[in-house]
Amino acid sequence: MIEAHELTKRYGDTTAVHSLSFTIAPGTVTGFLGPNGAGKSTTMRMIMGLDRPTSGTVTVNGKPYRQHRAPLREVGAPLEASAVHPGRSARSPLRSMAATHNIKVSRVSEVIEMTGLAGVATKRVGGFSLGMGQRLGIAAALLGDPGTLILDEPVNGLDPEGVQWVRQLVRALATSADHQETVGGLGHLAHQVRGEEDGSSFGGHANASPLVPD
C-alpha cells in the first residue's frame, strides 16, 4: 500500500507537486497521469525516497521507503537500461542486484522468463531495442518479488504485442490470490495505462487539483 498525505515538493520558487493526497491499496493498478512537468516523476522519486518532500508524508506499507530494511522487497522500480554498460549481458546486472540485496540467484531466471528475455539473456544490452530495454527494466523491478511496483511509462517503445503483455502482467500481479501487488504506472499519455488501471488517476501539478478521478 502507498499512502501520501498533503505531499508537496518545491524547488526554489517552483512548485512541482502541491498538496497531493492519495491511497493506493493492494490489488489495484493506478495511473499517475498528466503532461510533462506535472510532477509525476517527482512524486515517484518521493515515494522511492530519492527526493525529500518539502512538506507532507508518503509511506509504503506503513513506513517511509528508506526505513525498510529490505526496500527492494517492498517496492520495485525499473532499472534504466541506459544505466547498464552496453557490453554486459541482460542477465549480468540482474545477478549483481540479486547478490547485493541477498536475493536467491534462481530468482534471476524467474524474472527473465516472466519478462520474455530468456532468448536474449546472454546478449549484450547495447544491442537491445527500446522495447527490450523496457523488459529488462521491468525484470529488475520484479527481482525482489515486491508488494509494490512503480512503473514509469512502462509501455514506451513496445510494439502492440508488448503493450498487451505489460497489461496482462500488471493485471496478473495485482489480482494474484496469494500475492496481490500495488501497481502505480506513470505516463504522460493517458492511453498508456488506461487499459489496466482500476483505481483513480492522480495529477500532482501545482496549479491543478491534486486528485483527478478517472
In short:
The protein is an alpha/beta fold and 214 residues long. The chain has 6 helices and 7 strands.
Give the distance, in angstroms, between the N- and C-terminal Cα atoms.
Answer: 19 Å
Beta strand count: 7
Task: Find the CATH superfamily of one domain.
Answer: P-loop containing nucleotide triphosphate hydrolases
**3D shape:** globular
Percent in strands: 15-25%
Total helical segments:
6
Write out the strand line-up for the largest beta sheet, numbering strands in chain order. 3-7-6-5
Low-confidence sequence ranges? 188-194, 199-214
Gyration radius, rounded: 17 Å
Q: What CATH architecture label of one domain applies?
A: 3-Layer(aba) Sandwich
Task: Tell me what the structure shows.
With 214 residues, this protein is of the alpha/beta class. It has six helices and seven strands. It has helices at 40-47, 91-100, 106-114, 130-142, 160-175, 190-194, and strands spanning 2-11, 14-24, 29-33, 55-60, 75-76, 148-152, 182-187. Strand 1 and strand 2 (14-24) form a beta hairpin. The longest helix is centred in the last third of the chain and has 16 residues, at 160-175. Keywords: ATP-binding, Nucleotide-binding, Transport.
Features:
alpha/beta; 7 strands; disordered C terminus; 214 residues; three-stranded antiparallel β-sheet; 6 helices; four-stranded parallel β-sheet; Rossmann fold
What's the helix and strand layout?
Elements: E1 2-11, E2 14-24, E3 29-33, H1 40-47, E4 55-60, E5 75-76, H2 91-100, H3 106-114, H4 130-142, E6 148-152, H5 160-175, E7 182-187, H6 190-194
Parallel strand pairs: 3-7, 5-6, 6-7
Antiparallel strand pairs: 1-2, 1-4
Helix pairs in contact: 2-3, 3-4
